[in-house]
From TrEMBL:
<protein>
    <recommendedName>
        <fullName>Lipoprotein</fullName>
    </recommendedName>
</protein>
<feature type="signal peptide">
    <location>
        <begin position="1"/>
        <end position="18"/>
    </location>
</feature>
<keyword id="KW-0732">Signal</keyword>
Length: 133
């Protein structure tokens, strides 16, 4: 029985990692709370985006919750193990700005600290692996 559970978890994790990214154009609706400085610890900060267009992949939501790794560091300037999941050209995230985001599921792709003010919202969380203006 334990072997079946472990195999199921392995297959579920493999599916999460193998899932094709979803690309959207969206507007950052707000920046909730205050982002911690990056000298304390690394984290993913969750933003809410209004989906304006799905460029590739499948997403039916009108709004999406998106985690960004260390958002105080410009995209493309991250130099640690998350560099491959922090691409793009955004220097600073600004509320009401439009971005193109490449998304993968947050679960299974980040296991560290998550700063998430949307704790009452049970929507899936995504990780932005690339964000461009």
């Amino acid at each position: 029985m334990l072997k079946k559970i472990i195999l199921s978890l392995f297959l579920a994790a493999a599916f999460v990692f193998a899932a094709d990214p979803i690309t959207i154009e969206g507007r950052l609706t707000e920046i909730p709370g205050k982002m911690p400085s990056n000298d304390l610890y690394s984290y993913v900060y969750v933003f809410k985006y209004k989906v304006q267009k799905v460029v590739s992949g499948k997403l039916d939501a009108k709004e999406v919750l998106v985690g960004v790794y260390n958002p105080l560091i410009a995209r493309g300037k991250v130099k640690d193990k998350m560099a491959d999941k922090s691409k793009g050209n955004v220097g600073e995230f600004k509320a009401k700005s439009k971005y193109t985001l490449k998304l993968i599921p947050l679960e299974g792709n980040w296991d560290g600290a998550v700063e998430d003010e949307y704790f009452d919202d049970e929507s899936p969380r995504y990780l932005a692996i690339e964000v461009n203006e």
